[in-house]
Amino acid sequence: MGMSTLTDRQADEKLEAAPDVPWQTVVWDDPVNLMSYVVRVFRQYFGFSQELATKRMLQVHHDGHAVVAEGAREQMELHAQAMHDYGLWATVRKAPQ
Predict the structure, then answer these.
(1) 27 or 12, which is more confident?
(2) Which residues form the Adaptor protein ClpS core domain (predicted)?
């Protein structure tokens, strides 16, 4: 058994031992969608206020990405799929500790 396999298994066990580690849905910048459309998607799907939706859109625009949701992995994957359905680029990641 190689050392990396052991390390991977330990990492998996650590994750399972800490199921409360939150996950995030991250929306990434793309050259296609208008800023106004991204704001509309965030308002419609997440129920963000105009102010919050605009703030997140500007993060995407200026920083290249923004965290739009945090919680259980399954829910974050549903959010990412919904963003794909709207034509946005989104991924799911473990929240930084």
Answers:
(1) 27
(2) 21-91
